Amino acid sequence: MVTFTLVAESSKRIHVQVARQIARKILSGELGQGTKLPSELELCELFGISRTALRESMKLLSAKGLIASRPKVGTKVLTRENWHFLDPQLLEWLQDLAGTEVFLHQFLGLRKAIEPEACALASMNATMEQRKEISILFQNMTKAALEDDEMAWAENDLEFHCKIFQSTGNNFFVPFGNILSTIFKRFIDHSAEGGRYCLDEHRAIYEAIMTGNSIQAKHASASLLKDDNQRLAAVSNG
């Protein structure tokens, strides 16, 4: 049986705390797709909250595609294809859950699909100021790699990739540099473990962007995103 814990007064609003608990049960599979949630009264007792707070939590979960409520039927967990995986708060709730390897693999697939094109666009459209910022970030990454400073590497690598998306000149690419920052950090922290920084691969991207070579920028990005360069454990397709 799924269990919940009482929420406490804190800097975070109560309804957000409740939504996070339920969401993480759903994302981890503890609350399976199609599962009916306990009644409103039961949930209020389990969390020690008012109906008003609970209803705000349900609205938040519903807006993220995790649940749906129907009169006389109750509230059920929706199937995975309804979940809004690009929602930044949902990505935050995914953090540190057991079994997140599958999400990291899927995120790598998304990066492979869009990031090489983003690098190509940045090589053509980045402003002088943006190129300067990318240059500073790469210099910081080089220093971090030489000093084996994983924290500094992760911070600057995150900003490096975000800046590339912001430099594409295409408004539809820009959100990937912002909305996905949470999972970018998780992914970069994960892939940098053990000191494998892929500095040469990042240098190739950096030089291609600086020289305006879109073809080389695309190839360099694809090379960085090869599975061999990412420290992810194998996961099943099931």
Keywords, please?
238 residues, mainly alpha, Arc Repressor Mutant, subunit A, Four Helix Bundle (Hemerythrin (Met), subunit A), 2 domains, two-stranded antiparallel sheet, disordered C terminus
Quick gist of this model?
This protein has helices spanning 14-28, 40-47, 51-63, 88-94, 101-125, 128-146, 150-166, 181-191, 199-211, 214-224, and strands at 67-70, 74-77. By secondary structure, the protein is mainly alpha-helical.
What does this entry look like structurally?
Strand 1 (67-70) and strand 2 (74-77) form a beta hairpin. This protein starts with 13 loop residues before the first helix and ends in a 14-residue tail after the last helix. The protein is mainly α. Residues 233-238 have low confidence and may be disordered. The protein has a two-stranded antiparallel ribbon with strand order 1-2. 58% of the residues lie in helices and 3% in strands. The protein has 2 domains: 14-88, Arc Repressor Mutant, subunit A, CATH 1.10.10.10; 100-229, GntR ligand-binding domain-like (Four Helix Bundle (Hemerythrin (Met), subunit A), Up-down Bundle). It contains 10 helices and 2 strands. This is FadR/GntR family transcriptional regulator. It comes from Vibrio algarum. Residues 12-80 form the HTH gntR-type domain. InterPro entries: GntR_C, TF_FadR/GntR_C, Tscrpt_reg_HTH_GntR, WH-like_DNA-bd_sf, WH_DNA-bd_sf. Keywords: DNA-binding, Transcription, Transcription regulation.
Find the structural class using helix and strand composition.
Answer: mainly alpha
CATH architecture of the largest domain: Up-down Bundle
Spatial extent as radius of gyration = 21 Å
Tertiary shape: elongated
Q: End-to-end span in angstroms?
A: 24 Å
State the helix count: 10
CATH superfamily membership of the largest domain: GntR ligand-binding domain-like
Tally of strands: 2
Mean pLDDT level = 86
**Quaternary structure of the protein:** single chain
What level of helicity do the residues show? 55-70%
Low-confidence stretches: 233-238
Highest CATH level, the class of the largest domain: Mainly Alpha
Number of domains: 2
The major sheet is characterized as: 2 strands, antiparallel
CATH topology category name of the largest domain:
Four Helix Bundle (Hemerythrin (Met), subunit A)
Q: Give the H and E element order.
A: HHHEEHHHHHHH
Fraction in beta strands: under 5%
Strand line-up in the sheet with most strands? 1-2
